[in-house]
Amino acid sequence: MKTTLVIPTYWTSGPHQLSLKQKPIAIYDHPTFITEPGTLPRLLGSLEKLCNKGVEVPSIVVLVVVTHEELERAAKEKTESILGKHKHRLRIVSFSSSELDSLFSRLKKGVLLKSALSPNLIGYSNVRNTGLIISRILGSEAVIFLDDDEVVADERFFQKCTEFVGKKFKGKIIGGVTGGYIGPTGSYWLKDSAREWWKTGWRKRRKMNEAFEIIEGSARLEETPFAFGGNMVLHKRLFEKVPFDPYIHRGEDMDMLVNARMHGFAFLLDNQLWVRHFPAYVAKHWSEMRQDVYRFAYTRRKLQYQRHITGVSPLRTKSLEPYPGYFLRRNTMFKFIVSGFLSAIHSVLESRTEDSMEYLKNIKASLSDVPQYAEKHCRDYFDFQNLWARTIPLIGEHELSKACLVESGGK
User: Fold this and answer.
1) How many domains does the chain have?
2) pTM here?
3) Which of 87, 125, 165, 291 is 20 to 30 A away from residue 368, measured at CA?
4) Residue 232, domain CATH
């Protein structure tokens, strides 16, 4: 099975770089400071070790993603300097935003890509959709997504990746498979303390840990309510029809699972498919909460709207319990406000006034902008998916696509 390995690498300004004039174009969980070596060399080193042991590592597409447009050139140069040390063993090509703009403009001129799809490297979903398009042009039957802050140590990892996708499970095509993360402590479990009283009502890590219990189940393959974008395999049958949702800015991996199941595909957890995860930077709690409340409100509204769409399989919120389903319930906004208020108080007690103000901004947004955003865009994904399904299958069948990929300048 021809497979492409897609690795987005995320870069942000250094902690003391105050000269950037532009605001961030996107927020990411674990970006690397442009002034630091980053985590990408460690991942590529682990893949090279597998090569040295005789493991066939798929062709790699590295997507250079930045939080500020001003960083693109520096991030591309830094990424290329890293890749240059591994190209003697690994088959790697990288793309920056400007190179992809060239590719997609050529495809649009050739009437192969609709302008309404507008693929780009801004936001998780768009980054992953770009990886799908490039993989389709390359003629791949499966796409593996890894993140740059991981390590692959299992010599059978890539064999496991393609073992089940495309086959059937309970009468449905397995469109996607996800595995688990083993953290720095050697465990799947996330740290969660009952003493964090300010998180009352928004115990996200606790609910995630409840969901992770299936990882230790006796069955290797299980239906799952969650997925990890940094350890995910998608089959062509799925990604030609179902894209990541560009209207969700965080949690695009679990949203892909939702979209896949709505369109009749099985999306499973393989408890033997694992990677080591070493996140170098963690976003502030208020920022994570802000992105999450938009994400959960939007997903809940999209699930409600699906009854108006023909050709989709109704998906109930209960099937996504305990996570993310717990945060898709009717009282989610109330729980968010309670936790936001308590977190603001805690921040004041800890002399973090700026953080306290951000929590209060979250509460204000949850009462107006969040529900408005969900209502405004709840149908948009279905229109986007319809256009994607009519466009993407044709791209990979045309020689012009491959010519455009070469001419766009990816190195």
Assistant:
1) 1
2) 0.94
3) 125
4) 3.90.550.10
